[in-house]
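Below is the record:
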Amino acid sequence: MSGAPRYVLATPMRNERGLLPELLATVRSQSVVPALWLVVDDHSTDGSREWLEHETKDLNWVVVVEAPEDAGEYLGGHIARIKSWGLAEAVRLAQERGPTPDYCGILDADVLLPADHYARLIAEFVADGSLGVVSSVLKVPGATRVEAWQRSDLPRGPTQLFSYACWQAMDGLPRVQGYDAIANLKAKNRGYRTKLVTDVVASHRRETSTREGHARGFERRGSYAHYLHLNPVLVLGRSLAYSWDPPHIKGLHFFKGWARAALSREPRCPDPEVVRHYRYERLREVFNAALGRGIRFVR
């Protein structure tokens, strides 16, 4: 790496006019600003694109483009394809303007960042050359703790940052639902470490999967679990775990989404890496982790 580290970001948006002022402020406030920030407007109808273009007309490192496809819903495979395309486009445009970026990542439109967010994530890469993916942890504003179920080896999709080499080795961001989890898996399978940087906290302005409410969001999570071939034992475990915190009905909606997808024989991910991991390896991970905790408790 020569000179200061360069990174690019891609952000998809649809009708986020109310969130954009703070989103723009949080990116501009970074102690290390991106070489290029590509915002992909997914056919907004609330003036989001017009407002952002006006506010960034003097910032040559901000580019606003139209999504390459239109779809009735802003979730699932559609948003995965937009994110994958957007990240590749951000890298391409950055290469046209200067050296290839050292890092590339996703920033969701409903996230706010501390001013040293990317400086600290980049420092993790510099300190450990084996890292391929990092992210901050997420916390909903007003909450007393970070969002639940954030594993230290599973960077979160809303702020995932990849080394350029890892992103290339993965052949880009997966273009299917569950893309962030699959990206972590593929990075590991290609010899890279993945890390959730637990002392870098970003604010998630709405709980994960709740853009359309808890019921719809957790049903979608359930359908994603079916798509990823998650072992039924783990499906049941997640359903119970999601029910622990209010609203307690989340677990039921998660299970309902999974069951509906299974009974309807909805298409599933054909990637053998994904099938092997979520059907078999993930269950062994959970079993070994539980066994380890039990042994430490007995001791």
